[in-house]
Structure formats: structure tokens, C-alpha cells
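Translate sequence into C-alpha cells.
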Amino acid sequence: MLYVVVIDVSELMHKEKYMSYYLWIEDNKINGGSTLFQEEVFTDNRFQVEVSEEVHNSYIKDNLKYVWNGSEIVLNPDYEEEKKAARHNYAMELSMTPLDFLKAIEPYGITYDTIKQLMANNPQVERELRFCQNVYRKHPMIIQFAEQFGITSEQLDELFIAANGEPD
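Result follows.
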């Protein structure tokens, strides 16, 4: 048996034209967004604010861009600093194989011969690079290694991000 369903799309188009966008405020911070008004009883520390589609979509894409200042949603005055800190925190949790690490540091003039010489002078470095499955960005040896060869913390972050992909 075949059923045919007819939908009046003009009604759907009309609703979409007047869709509302909301950001959730909880404990004086933006805590999410939705396109539906939630009809529930809110506590003193949780409510929603209607915003433009642009602000809503921008917040959903990058939740650091806007903040609640106590009375309205505004552009985050500390956005660049917070974005940089979030990128660093992301990088600190990353790892790569020792081979990928050796390839990543080559553009800094650190050749395999340099690494072999370092390993000959430091048995711990040799054990770490030869027998570990992954090199971790936050490992103190990697941080010390980078400092020794003039690689900044930001450059080290970028090495690990390039090997693992950009944060969401």
C-alpha cells in the first residue's frame, strides 16, 4: 500500500523566518545555546537570553567569543588571550610518535645526528625516544629539549597541533 503525504511548506518557511535564538546563562556565564525556548521553571542562577542568529551561531562555533557581563551578552574583551590559552591547553594534551617528533623538529635545524649525539650523552633521552610509543607535549623532557634548542613554547604547541590537527 502506498501513502502520499502532502506538506504545506509555506507554513514551515514562515516558521523558519521567525525562528528565535537563545543563549543559556548559568552561574553568570554563557553555558550553551538553543533555537527553542525552554518552558520550565528556572532557578536563580539559570536563564536564557534571546539573541540574533549571528550571535547564536558565532557562539556555537566559538564559545569563547561572547561573555555575559551581568546584564547582557557582549564580545569577550579577553577573547584573544583566552583563545591563545585554550590552544595551548589543547596542545599540552597532545602526543606524536618519536619518528613524527624527529621529523617535526628538522625545520628547526635539529638533525638526526644532533639527536644521536644528545642520546649518547643522556641515556634517559635515548630510552625515552627509542622505547616510548608516543612523545607527549607536556612531558618535562620535551619542554627541556625545546628550551635547549631554542624552540619556544608556542612553536612547540604548533608542532604538536600540526601533527594532530586543529582543535574543534
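Note: Helices lie at 9-17, 53-61, 79-92, 98-105, 112-121, 123-131, 140-148, 153-164.
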